[in-house]
Amino acid sequence: MKAMSTDAITPPVNSNEDGSALFADGPAAKPAAEPTNGPPRLRRADRSQVSMIMAALDALLPAEHQARVVWQFVETLDLDPLHAAIRAVPGRAGRDATDPRILMSLWLYATLDGVGSARRLAQLCEDHLAYRWICGGVSMNHHTLADFRTAHVEVLDRLLTESVAVLMNEDLVTMERVAQDGLRVRASAGTASFRREERLKDLAEQARQQVEALRQEVADNPAGASRRQRAARERAARERQERIARAQAELPSVRAKKRSDKEQARVSTTDADARFMKMADGGIRPAVNVQFATDTASQVITGVDVTNNGSDMGQMVPMIQQHEDRHGRPPGAMLVDGGFASRDDIDAATHREPATVVYAPVQKSRKNKGALCYERQPADTDAVAQWRQRMATPEAQEIYKERAATAECVNAIARNRGLRRLLVRGLRKIKAVVLWFALAHNLVRGAVLRRQAQPRVA
Q: Are 402 and 328 contained in the same domain?
């Protein structure tokens, strides 16, 4: 018997266990095509799944977020007057008061975010990460937010002065030139709420009778309604009576400003401080006149005022005096448009000590066109004649161009942040809202100026 060869029982190296060839001669065989029909395989949302997220609010908010910048700014403010008014102290009953720094930060950040409603802000404190971070677990309600926004006008005014003083101490604000401009803002009053004298008398009598009727109703049937309901009805009637009385008190001043038809003077029973004004779109609506003064070199707001005068005439000198009261010295120069430049205002600004140079366009008339308008007129004083001569020079006209780049720019920024229609009534509350806009604006401008002042690293 012949011995079997080992090659007969040992499969070749390039073979499978069953002896089939591992590499077939010729091109490799193509795999079978996968089916392409049927629904796609997707990762679908499952919002009913319970998950536990363990993270601190501080870790969720980015380090460079604007809410942190606002909080850092508020921490530098002197809020002692707000703390002194808090009645919740050790040894006295009652719940703890909300930290004024939280309320201050919320309204500054909300102003930058274009939020002007207390109810909307209260909702954001529950839903939005940045507002939740500022609250830090402290609950909010819209009553507390609304009251805080308008209750501390003097504190806000002082904070504006101090914030500008800090920037001046850092040589970021010079007040060498200040631009002023007016901004008509729609008031929280409807056109139909304006009433004449006779109608105001009728409404006042109706309001008085309503208050008396409510008191008599309580006396006749004390159990007719809950104490809370009675208090709410009495408060509403009393506030209506007060608004009508306020309108009657404002009527003489409105009548005095009318040139004709003084008996047709009307005042709003909703907001007695609102006046009909010509708006930027040409329409005439109830509004107030907001005045901003801005340092032209830094675009920092240095002065704020609110009036119900529809004209800017006569607003420049009070703003100059406000700067002297706030900052210890008047502006070196005031840049205003033609609506501010009356002869009396130019005289008053020039004759101050130290004097403030006025840059305003010279109004042309039919008689004085072209170069003639820059010549001295018969009714001009020396200060007005100097102003005409100054505005004829190319240097003065170049300086005046800074007004549009500052005052009008600041007004546009305020519009974009929501200063279009007011949700509060009365000049005092409106001024508080305007001061919030000024503080928020200066907060951002201060951060930009400090960043620009830092030396660049090569």
A: yes
